[in-house]
Amino acid sequence: MHISKRTQKMCQPALLKYYPLVEEAKKKGRKVYFLNIGQPDIKTPDPFLKAVCAHQPKVLEYQTPEGILALRTASSSYYQRLGLNYTKNDIFITNGGSEALLFTFLSICDPGDEILTPEPLYSIYKEIAAAANVKLVGIRTHAEDGFALPSKDAIEALITKQTRAILITNPGNPTGKVFSKEELNCLSELSVKHALFLVSDEVYREFLYENLTYLSPAQDQKIPEQVILVDSISKRYSACGARIGFIVLKNQALKESIKKLCQMRLSVSEIDQVGAVNLMELEADFFQSIIKEYSYRRAIVFEGLKKIPGVICKMPKGAFYFMVKLPIIRADHFIEWLISEFAYENETVLLSPADDFYLDPEGGKDEVRLAYVLNAKDMQKAMGILEKALEAYKIAFPEMCK
Amino acid sequence: MHISKRTQKMCQPALLKYYPLVEEAKKKGRKVYFLNIGQPDIKTPDPFLKAVCAHQPKVLEYQTPEGILALRTASSSYYQRLGLNYTKNDIFITNGGSEALLFTFLSICDPGDEILTPEPLYSIYKEIAAAANVKLVGIRTHAEDGFALPSKDAIEALITKQTRAILITNPGNPTGKVFSKEELNCLSELSVKHALFLVSDEVYREFLYENLTYLSPAQDQKIPEQVILVDSISKRYSACGARIGFIVLKNQALKESIKKLCQMRLSVSEIDQVGAVNLMELEADFFQSIIKEYSYRRAIVFEGLKKIPGVICKMPKGAFYFMVKLPIIRADHFIEWLISEFAYENETVLLSPADDFYLDPEGGKDEVRLAYVLNAKDMQKAMGILEKALEAYKIAFPEMCK
């Protein structure tokens, strides 16, 4: 029997190979700090489960494919509060942000079509692109300058007849990069000039530090037809286990395609939608304490990293990740050693190898991603362990160090 | 900007066009019996919402992409009770049966590949195939002989170098057809001879009448590597609003592909999975009263249809649909008239036009699908209305009648 090439091309997350080693470490009684995944530790706000429990239908029925009216209405109000003029008819509820991305790729690309996206990139983009037979083309950015976009000319040189869209994650995963007004303008101009969609994945929208103002292609009055917002409640409300995402757009022709994709899978979870309505109604002050907490952790991690010789990393302005260049040759080898060999006071850390975040097969070999989703005390401890580990690694494997 | 050809090829359900007319009918004070969709009226069993309310995690977290262990374990027990030897490692939980189908199509077909399936077919198959760039090839069956499969030679003649699988819905939607042992053997032999997957969509598995025994390609010891079961809790437990489906298979290479697709979308709803565990543990006697109820309705509908001159329809053996040939030229015209013009004692019925259920653009023009998902009394009334309606239609539009 034939297994499809498109799924054979897909990759399993590199992280998976470390889990058996984590089990071994735990058996040895070692404590592991998990800095590898973006699973927030913040409590899911009570209104979600309260609404879920209060919802007692006789029959759990198919819901409108585009999403229940109450959730689209609450979402519209949320966007209005951000200054974005999206009505309930501009909003499609999806099974998480990942389905929002899949539907976006399927509706703007045919097999072989291309999407430009800054690299390092959210690794799941690669898998969705493979499943949808879409070619992702990386706009290479670098840790040394905080993952700034290259010049407009350099980006334009990557546009071909097959290019259908530019896709950004803003704030970025894995980089924590927040795009500047100038960078967004540059992408906007290119999307107009070449009739491309501009897809803005903003699932970390609220995670902005240093009092940065929210900036989005959706604010650009010149390109309402071009902009596709991808969104999710997962990070914003610490509700990854509820699968509620959003595609938000003004383009009528594209809406028709998105609607058909929604109809294809009939419905999104009734209960998750009911719970999410209450979350969308939380006011901006809900985020203030959370941002304060993440901001504090971010400072601790940055202090910790600065102390380690040879580490290259600019302070990220958003999301809850650090993309860090380490003074080593191969991050995957270092991470495997960290979890299987190393311990400091019987504790160690798990990091993400960065090669998953690159299209370039040579990209990210000496980089790791680190999520600050543990409390401040644990983050501080984890940074101390990382420092000790790099010292020990340099002695154990001098040939693997820079 | 470019809208993809694949989504432009997709169709909106023909039914949608009637909804504005339904609103008009309601405004006139008319009662409408909705026989058009397979949304069961049976109460969702209490254990679902009880489990949901009892589940009070601090954080709604990403769950294992393949589905939570408790649900895969409970599902394995369910399959063991049916005599199918599937372990928790053979089971993938999906966002409803529709995602199970999408992942199946993506993992066994590359763009341009073909899947054979009896026609009339579940209309969503067409949409999923279009989104996945898969070509569906119909094995034409007919109301006159209860939608029996044609000869083995006739089916084999449809197999090309691009054919990757045979897909059946058993019991069938929209036909209510239950495949015989001989028919299943024929498909099994063809799948072995041509190295095809045999996909069995069994979401109506329990809806078998006349004490029929459950038969499935999954019972065939000769083709464990070939069989892919597609399943869902939607119909079985009257829980369409919970999005819980299943892909069940033994083929190790294909499992790798399915697993990557599951990882691509991270997780299925935590809450829906927790609720579903309890449903999977309901014993067979749970179904007995439901089957009795549907069996009773089925008899009422069949009695009603038999009375109407010119109606062609064999008694379906499973699911909860009748696919009925009416003595008219165009079902869509009749349905539109039913809902916008006709009323009997200020009541009318909404039916599904059958052309959605065909690949053949000429198929089903004189057929409708009718779901018996209302209580017996309402079904009886609805059949009376249909009889009166056909009489009146013949007078109003003799040229549209046979």
Question: Structural class of the helices, strands and pairings of chain A?
Answer: alpha/beta
What amount of the residues of chain A lies in strands? 5-15%
Helix percentage of chain A = 25-40%
Radius of gyration of chain A: 21 Å
Please count the helical segments of chain A.
13
The H/E string of chain A reads: HHEHHEHEHEHEHEEEHHHEHEEEH
CATH class of the largest domain in chain A: Alpha Beta
**What is the first-to-last residue Cα distance of chain A?**
48 Å
Mean pLDDT of chain A: 95
Which overall shape of chain A is indicated by the principal axes computed on the Cα atoms?
Answer: globular
- Weakly predicted, low-confidence segments of chain A: none
Largest sheet of chain A: 7 strands, mixed
Main-sheet strand order of chain A equals 2-8-7-6-5-3-4
In terms of quaternary structure, what is this? Answer: homodimer
Biggest protein-protein contact in the assembly:
A-B, 80 and 80 residues
Task: Give descriptors for this structure.
homodimer, 402 residues, Aspartate Aminotransferase, domain 2, seven-stranded mixed β-sheet, 13 helices, 12 strands
